[in-house]
Design a protein that fits this description.
By secondary structure, this protein is an alpha/beta fold. Helix 2 crosses helix 3. The model has no long low-confidence stretch (mean pLDDT 93). The relative contact order is 0.18. Strands 2-1-3-6-4-5 form a six-stranded mixed sheet. The chain contains seven helices and six strands, in the order E-E-H-H-H-E-H-E-H-E-H-E-H. The protein starts with a strand and ends with a helix.
């Protein structure tokens, strides 16, 4: 089992914790990581881009001049693509970019992402992140003690004070154990998780 240090809010090591190898010690599958990131980004795309083809542009129902004898090149419509105000040749139309990954692939990708952070020593476990009040200054002090500037903070359910305290800090994103995803894990330099959150992750994904 992977053994990592546990820190308090002052940034001091207060113990260690054994992480479940079935989640935090699996072989990293780069193909699944790539697929999960592409899947998440594709599912976010609106796909609402639209331009008109020559059949949709108004006007141009008659030939601008007769076929022969004018000295001009033959033209069938003033709304052909080569004309100003004409239609677009291969105009984009609304489409759905999303695609599905099956549940096993999603879980394997998430485990690979978590395992890669542990292997790179970018996974920090906190004893707790309990604050008496909602105050950005308090959370910023914790990050300073840990020497972390950009991180994904995974919190247990119900920890509203910590969640709201971190809301306005640039480079910090909070997430609950049931909403963590591969894209966020790989995007941030460090993953910070409370002991309670780690226990929840092991319970859900084991």
């Amino acid at each position: 089992m992977a053994n990592v240090s546990v820190f308090n809010i002052e940034g001091k090591e207060v113990g260690t914790i054994d992480l479940n190898d079935a989640i935090f010690g699996v072989e990293v599958n780069e193909h699944l990581l790539h697929m999960a990131v592409v899947n998440q980004l594709a599912n976010k795309r609106q796909g609402t881009q639209k331009a008109k083809t020559r059949s949709e542009v108004s006007g141009g129902g008659r030939k601008p001049w007769r076929q022969k004898g004018t000295g001009h090149a033959r033209q069938g419509s003033i709304r052909a693509p080569q004309w100003t105000g004409g239609g677009v040749v291969f105009a984009p139309t609304p489409r759905d970019y999303s695609f599905k990954m099956n549940r096993k692939e999603k879980r394997a990708a998430l485990k690979s992402a978590l395992s890669s952070m542990v292997a790179d020593k970018k996974f920090i476990v906190m004893e707790d992140l309990n604050f008496d009040e909602i105050k950005t200054k308090n959370f910023a002090a914790v990050l300073k003690n840990l020497e972390v500037k950009k991180a994904l903070v995974v919190l247990e359910d119900g920890n509203k004070n910590a969640e709201l305290s971190a809301k306005n800090i640039q480079g910090i994103k909070t997430s609950k154990t049931n909403t963590i995803n591969v894209y966020d894990i790989l995007k941030y330099n460090t993953v910070i998780a409370t002991k309670a959150a780690v226990a929840n992750i092991e319970e859900v994904y084991a």
